[in-house]
Amino acid sequence: MDDLQNQLQSLFGLDEFRPTQREVIEDVLSGRDVLCVMPTGAGKSLCYQLPAAMRGELVIVVSPLIALMEDQVQQLRDDGIAAEMLNTSLPAADRLRVMEMIKRGYEGLLYVAPERFYASNFQPILKILRPVFVAIDEAHCISQWGHDFRPEYSRLGEVRQLLGNPPIIALTATATDDVREDIIGILGLREPCIYVTGFDRPNLLYESSQVSNGRDKDAQLVKLLQQEPGGGIVYCATRKAVDEVSVMLAGVLPHRPIIPYHAGMDAYTRTANQERFMDTPDAIAVATNAFGMGINKPDVRLVAHYNIPGTLEAYYQEAGRAGRDGRPARCVILFSYQDRYTHEFFIKKMGEESADPDSANIQARQKHATHKLDLIIQYARTHRCRRQMILDYFGEAREVQDCQCDVCRRGQEVSAQHSEPAEPMPEALVTLVRQILSAIARLHGKFGITTIADVLAGSQSERTQRWGFEQLSVFGLLKSHTTKRIIAMLRRLMEAGLARQRDPEGVHFRPVVELTPAGVAVMKAQQPPPAMLMDLLPHRPRQAEPKSSPRAANPASPVREEPLTEDETKRFERLRIIRLKMAKLRQLPPYCILHDTTLRSIARSIPASLDELERIKGIGPQKTQKFGREILDALHDGSSVE
Predict the structure, then answer these.
(1) Cβ neighbours for 540, distance < 8 A, ≥ 6 positions apart
(2) Where are the alpha helices (DSSP H) in 586-619?
(3) Using an 8 Å Cβ cutoff, are 624 and 565 in contact?
(4) CATH homologous superfamily of domain 3-196?
(5) 179-225 pLDDT, tens per residue?
(6) Which three-class secondary structure state does DSSP give residue 185?
(7) How many angstroms separate the CA atoms of 409 and 407, rounded?
């Protein structure tokens, strides 16, 4: 066993390096600049922790993630490796203690948030620090073209000079070519060794489901969580959405811990909720993108995006928190067009705090963000392999094999979908399907979905004339339909596995449409269209239903409730106080714990045991188990009950 392998085992108790770790570590130990792009869960941290532990000198680790700092510092200390941190979560006395250690020549890993370098009390110390190297985690935050740009990161090149130009290892899980160029340029990396270990996560099952309204989105989310009983994360675009979705899920999934998380909560609550999520196997975190960076929970079985993220980089990173144990996990987008408006609102607000919000730089950032948004929407609506789209986006030149994303699974199930429908398919519908397939065939897989729809609709345009589309036999075959309607029908045919999208060679994110073998067979009348296309044509509007009878329309008369007595009112108020305490602890509205009606029933009946409490309407066994003891204590004013 060589020395590096011995050090890995003696310092960290590990027997083997993961792919590429050894090469990165050897370059760091040799004093070279390194840019390391590794997917979530690939072991980036070891690439700087092992060299730091072996050198036994000062190594600065820059990270924006306080929770990750705390976890890593504790783990390093448990392994007997010197590690300290400086961030706003530390009490003032601890910060002073660490600052004094640094002044006296501290040797070990020092984790700092990037803004610490610009604090007035740290500036004098900064000038005397001479680390053997600097590790910059989440390095994509450096680039304004990245999905999580942080201005304080963009000044780390200046910080490097103040530190005496030490070698740097920059690490990230998400960086496209332009972001990698920014990292190298802004940090001033000198002939860096660049490692891009691959973006493919074969164990992740990528899916996207288009929903038309909030009610359908809620129903699909609940169904997903019922199908996946393990831990899960639900990402929302806004704090308001987090609050609303948390309340909704707590109401329909009372047996699952629902844990909200967003930046509007106080630091103590956020930390407590994150720790609860980490410690609870079947917990569901409902969060904004403030949650998850650096979260190392291996058994997350589902990451669902209630709202589409703003970029593919953000989606890849957030979805990548699923299945870190290597077992299959689902990554699902619940896409609606309303989500786009939310992100467009954020894009318009870019640069509002700038002295010149109309500057060319702000406009360029807004244009870039809009382009990124278009790409993630294209991903959500695609009918080509989602894993392949992710690899293409990050510039990884490889072909995906044995994919289990929803698009690829649909293609594998095409044969099952082509069973004869229970009722004969109308001839007009069969003809319509074959006309659409014929148009795809006549365009030879060289054009996208909009062009095919224009041809079928007989749209007159300069492009139509330039390409000679008017001469095609399929031109105008569906002129009685709008282009928008034809596009919708084309998507249905792709969902049925009769056609698919692909990117032409050398071109990304400009997909063309081509027939599948099943589509060719249907077009040639060798087999019928699949039964799932039975409703391809719009139904005629139904006649208005007769109005309900006055008796059925009238709601039941409300039941008058007798007012509480003085003693009952006192018990009721005590119950409301304990309910509020439990609600705050769980970051839920009080009514999600118990309704006032239920509290009044408890105040009236004065149950003396958990069994009696469980029999009161509105509680049941689950809430009795969770809240029963505290309720009884409050009811009896703290006196013990059996």
Answers:
(1) none
(2) 596-605, 610-614
(3) no
(4) P-loop containing nucleotide triphosphate hydrolases (3.40.50.300)
(5) 889 999 999 999 999 998 878 889 999 999 988 888 899 999 999 99
(6) helix
(7) 5
Residues in the chain: 642
Stated as kind and residue range, the H or E segment containing 267 is helix 267-279
Domain with CATH 1.10.10.10 in the chain: 413-533
The residue written with tokens 């909009």 in the block is 450
Sheet bearing 34-37, strands edge to edge:
83-86, 109-112, 59-62, 133-136, 168-172, 34-37, 193-196
Q: CATH 3.40.50.300 spans which residues of the chain?
A: 3-196, 204-406
Identify any residues that bridge with 37 across adjacent strands, giving them in sequence order.
172, 196
Instruction: Look at the alpha carbons of 621, 623, 627, 628 in this order and tell me if their dihedral is positive or negative.
Output: negative
Task: Give 36's strand partners.
Answer: 171, 195
Q: CA-based Rg of the chain, rounded to a whole angstrom?
A: 30
With beta carbons less than 8 A apart as the criterion, state whether 322 and 341 touch: no
Please name the residue that has the structure tokens 């109309």.
358
Q: How far is residue 207's CA from residue 407's CA, in Å, rounded to a whole number?
A: 8
- The CATH class that applies to domain 204-406 reads alpha beta
N-terminal to C-terminal alpha carbon distance within the chain:
63
The dihedral region occupied by 548, where left means phi > 0, alpha psi between -120 and 50, and beta the remainder, is beta
pLDDT score of 34 more than 80: yes
Beta strand pairing call for 329-335 and 204-210: parallel
Total Cβ atoms within 10 A of residue 469: 24
Residue with token string 């970051």:
587
Buried b (16+ CB within 10 A) or exposed e, 205-217: bbbbbebeeeeeb
What does DSSP assign to residue 472? S
Closest listed residue to residue 248, CA positions, set 577, 571, 547, 591: 591
Residue 501: phi and psi, rounded to 5, are: -105, 150
> For the whole prediction, is pTM greater than 0.90?
no
Quick one: which of 553, 558, 597, 546 has its CA closest to 575? 597
Q: What's the gap between Cα 391 and its chain centre?
A: 17
All residues at 6 or more sequence positions from 363 whose CB lies less than 8 Å from its CB, including other chains: none
Q: Using one digit for the tens of pLDDT, what is the confidence trace for 357-398?
A: 667 878 888 888 888 898 899 899 888 889 988 988 887 878
The residue written with tokens 């990161």 in the block is 153
Q: Who's near 124: CB < 8 A, 6+ residues apart?
A: none
Cα distances (Å, whole numbers) of residue 502 to 383, 385, 390, 396, 519: 8, 8, 13, 16, 15
Topology adopted by domain 413-533: Arc Repressor Mutant, subunit A (1.10.10)
The CATH class given to the 566-635 domain equals: mainly alpha
**What's the pLDDT tens digit per position in 107-158?**
999 999 888 888 888 888 888 899 999 999 989 888 876 667 788 888 899 9
Residues 110 and 90 sit within 8 Å (Cβ to Cβ): no
